[in-house]
Design brief:
- The N terminus is likely disordered.
- This protein has 17 helices and 8 strands.
- An 8-stranded parallel sheet has the order 1-2-3-4-5-6-7-8.
- It has a single domain, classed as Metal-dependent hydrolases (TIM Barrel, Alpha-Beta Barrel), CATH 3.20.20.140.
- The relative contact order is 0.14.
- The chain is of the alpha/beta class.
Length: about 375
């Protein structure tokens, strides 16, 4: 699953100090070469307009947009709900096991081009089963793509099944029942969709059941919702990692707790910009989170809708916040530390990353 050596990813030209021959800055070149994990990616949010139209044609579905360009023009969001309305509409083209395979394999191919070595991807089964698509169809299609990517691309991936928080806990309980029949294919359980008005505590019982079944636990909290939602995610649900979480900075006691427990936060800068969580990336709290000793990672969230995959997010915050080389390296390393890879694989991956960085410093 984990390549034995990552030192060669830096190539023979890593001694350069100013610019590459392609006009890429040294920092951008570093970002492109650094091994990394992606820990916050909604696989349905990687559905590019071109693939959406291709699947619509294959399945005889008529989209309410006349062209790929018209669909892209619709990607103007002022809040999370604006995005979710189009996101769920896009799901309508996903019908067969092959559709889910093609969706996931396209994303994993794109991630591998960004030197992503491991992915922990969210999927939203309730958005499909409500349309009459079986849970098995979704999971088997995604799993087939993961297995193909491991064999052909050398990238590993695992699945995190998310509950849609705007639905009730009873619906989540039924979804967990379906997931238990596929336990070996699903690493974790998460919580996503509309945050405001749907606190994590709404799902206390189903998360307790998921924990008892051996799933790792995750929750979106502190994106639009208040710091209290982050407290609930860690103390009521007992999550292993918080997704987003930047509003934690409003509560010094919470920040201290997150830093003490090394609770990872999966941050998605371009998503935050497109959903107006921040009005400009120069105001993004990522660097402040690092300065407060929080274990933060950089991710793409829903890259087809928010204008960038993981390296695009790295480059955007590097430029906007003026991140230095050591900060970029720390963010990439954090992605391995925060991953849910089996512990031997994680330690091997971190050691390989550190060897690669030592080699870079010696050059």
């Amino acid at each position: 699953m984990i390549p034995e050596k990552w030192e060669p990813v830096f190539g023979k030209d890593h001694a350069q100090t100013k610019r590459t021959g392609t006009g890429m800055t040294n920092h951008d070149w570093l970002i492109s070469r650094l091994p990394k994990c992606e820990l916050h990616i909604h696989i349905e949010g990687s559905l590019e307009p071109e693939l959406m139209f291709a699947l619509a044609r294959r399945n005889g579905i008529r989209l309410p947009y006349e062209s790929v360009e018209a669909l892209r023009r619709a990607y103007q969001f002022t809040r999370l709900q604006d995005f979710l309305d189009i996101y769920y509409q896009g799901m309508s083209v996903l019908i067969t096991e092959q559709d889910f395979h093609d969706l996931a394999f396209a994303y994993l191919t794109r991630a591998q081009a960004d030197n992503v070595h491991h992915v922990e991807m969210f999927f939203d089964p309730q958005g499909h089963t409500a349309r009459g698509v079986s849970f098995t169809t979704v999971v088997d299609g995604l799993t087939a793509a993961i297995e193909k990517a491991r064999a052909e691309l050398g990238i590993s991936a695992s699945l995190i099944m998310c509950f849609l928080r705007h639905l009730d806990e009873a619906d989540a309980e039924r979804t967990l029942d379906s997931a238990l029949a596929h336990r070996a294919k699903i690493m974790g359980v998460g919580l996503d969709s509309s945050e405001l008005g749907h606190p994590p505590a709404k799902f206390t019982r189903v998360f307790a059941r998921a924990r008892d079944a051996g799933f790792s636990l995750f929750a979106h909290a502190g994106e639009e919702g208040p710091p209290g939602y982050v407290w609930e995610a860690i103390d009521v649900l007992g999550v292993d990692r918080v997704d987003h979480g930047h509003r934690s900075l409003e509560d010094d006691t919470l920040v201290a707790r997150l830093a003490r427990d090394r609770m990872a936060l999966t941050v998605c800068p371009l998503s935050n910009l497109r959903l107006r969580v921040v009005d400009d990336l120069t105001h993004h709290p990522l660097r402040r989170m690092m300065q407060r000793d929080l274990l933060v990672t950089v991710n793409s969230d829903d890259p087809a809708y928010f204008g960038g995959y993981v390296n695009d997010n790295f480059r955007a915050v590097r430029q906007s916040l003026g991140l230095e080389r050591d900060e970029i390296i720390a963010l990439a390393r954090n992605s391995f530390v925060a991953s849910m890879m089996p512990e031997p694989d994680k330690q091997e991956a971190i050691a390989a990353f550190d060897r690669a960085i030592a080699s870079l410093h010696r050059s």
